[in-house]
Design brief:
Layout (H helix, E strand, L loop, with lengths): L1 H44 L3 H8 L3 H7 L1 H15 L7 H13 L4 H16 L9 H14 L13 E6 L6 H14 L4 E6 L4 H14 L2 E3 L7 H14 L4 E6 L9 H15 L6 E7 L4 H11 L6 E5 L9 H9 L3 E5 L7 E3 L2 H9 L1
Parallel strand pairs: 1-4, 1-5, 2-3, 2-4, 5-6, 6-7
Antiparallel strand pairs: 7-8
The protein binds guanosine-5'-triphosphate (GTP) and magnesium ion.
């Protein structure tokens, strides 16, 4: 009797949970669609994707706007800790350490920056606190310049980029924005829906294909991700597409470990298309700060990551994580996302970025 009741209660709980999850899923989908509709309306108002991408320009002012929060935190903090000070004292160094950690530079990078300041003070090159900012900018720039990307896509037909990262970081959005960029450059882009975790994932990608004029290959939810990528690359080769951008899931239904699945995808890609994937780009949400460093370490255990994309820099004061990650892993940052719009993905420019952090 008790057992039966217990079972019934459990079944009820399970079905309530299922209904709740379904509700969440629908709400998520609705919100996403609303966002896309908004973006679409915005795009339709603008002259054309190509013009928009061209007009916005790469570099300086755009980064400045994007990292406003981080810059304000850093420059205001620096101004506060140096105001009225005549020399760089140990107490000032302690405050500086705290400031750099707060901007999410990470422990190792903060140490490197502090050592640079200490060296300059010891050599008597630096005694004016007002010059601190300039010195930090220089060192940040040299860290960022230390990981210049190698060109791996040129000459590859098709050039294949595999996008990896945990769920919600912005993989699919980044692929959509990149498709727009490549298409605007005259390249023919095929999008491969390797995220089969939920039906909405492929729909989201198909929608980007439609918007940007890119091609699309996807299958039903639950399909084997490696087999989707296999088919997509076959199509990419046979139909002579210039680029294949492969989406992957940030989580899986099966017990298969996500990183094992990525290894398999990578193997399969190489078997269909020699040298593929030519690039593996890890997408990281800048808002997650130090957690992004942890994620990088995890993914590096499975695949050789050839580039990073840092998204959502627009909303965070943790922009220092860009410096921290480069200093630690020496993996070049390829693009940064500074908003949800199609034009809000920019080639990473180390100099302009360092400048915009301290300007
Ligand atoms: N503000 C801001 N939002 C972004 C940026 N990039 C992506 N987003 C938003 O982040 C949310 C998640 O993006 P997705 O592209 O769906 O993330 P994903 O990594 O594909 O997620 P899964 O498919 O669940 O693994 C969406 O609402 C995007 O619009 C960015 O650079 N800035
Ligand atoms: Mg996605």
């Amino acid at each position: 009797m008790f057992n039966k009741k217990n079972k019934e209660a459990k079944a009820r709980q399970a079905s309530e949970e299922k209904a709740r999850l379904e509700k969440v899923r629908l709400a998520e989908r609705e919100a996403r669609l609303a966002l896309e509709r908004e973006e679409q309306a915005r795009l339709q108002q603008s002259p054309s994707l190509t013009q928009e991408l061209g007009a916005a320009g790469e570099g300086g002012s755009w980064f400045r706007r994007g990292v406003t929060k981080t810059r304000e935190a850093l420059t205001q903090g620096l101004a506060q800790l140096t105001v009225g000070k005549k020399e760089i004292s140990p107490a000032l160094m302690e405050e500086l350490e705290e400031l750099l950690l707060t901007a999410d530079m990470g422990v190792a990078t903060t140490k490197r920056l502090l050592e640079r300041v200490e060296r300059s003070v010891a050599r008597k090159e630096l005694n004016d606190p007002a010059r601190l900012k300039e010195l930090l900018r220089e060192e940040v720039e040299s860290i960022l310049l230390g990981a210049e990307p190698a060109e791996r896509l040129e000459g590859a037909n098709p050039g294949v980029i595999l996008f990896v990262g945990v769920n919600g970081v912005g993989k699919t959005t980044t692929i959509g924005k990149l498709a727009a960029r490549f298409q605007a450059e005259g390249k023919r882009v095929l999008l491969a829906a390797g995220d089969t975790f939920r039906a909405a994932a492929a729909e989201q990608l198909a929608h980007w294909a439609e918007r940007t004029g890119a091609g699309f290959y996807g299958r039903e939810a639950g399909a084997d991700p490696s087999s989707v990528i296999h088919q997509a690359l076959k199509k990419g080769l046979e139909e002579k597409w210039d680029r294949v951008l492969c989406d992957t899931a940030g989580r899986l239904h099966t017990k298969t470990n996500l990183l094992e699945e990525l290894k398999k995808i990578k193997r399969v890609a190489g078997a269909v298309c020699p040298g593929a994937p030519h690039e593996v780009w890890l997408v990281l949400d800048a808002n997650t700060g130090q957690n992004a460093i942890h994620q990088t370490r995890q993914f590096l255990k499975a695949v050789e990551v050839t580039g990073l994309v840092l998204t959502k820099l627009d909303g965070t004061a943790k922009g220092g994580v860009v410096v921290g990650i480069t200093n630690e892993f020496h993996i070049p940052i390829r693009f940064v996302g500074l908003g949800e719009g199609v034009e809000d993905l920019r080639v990473f420019d180390p100099k302009a970025f360092a400048q915009s952090l301290f300007d």
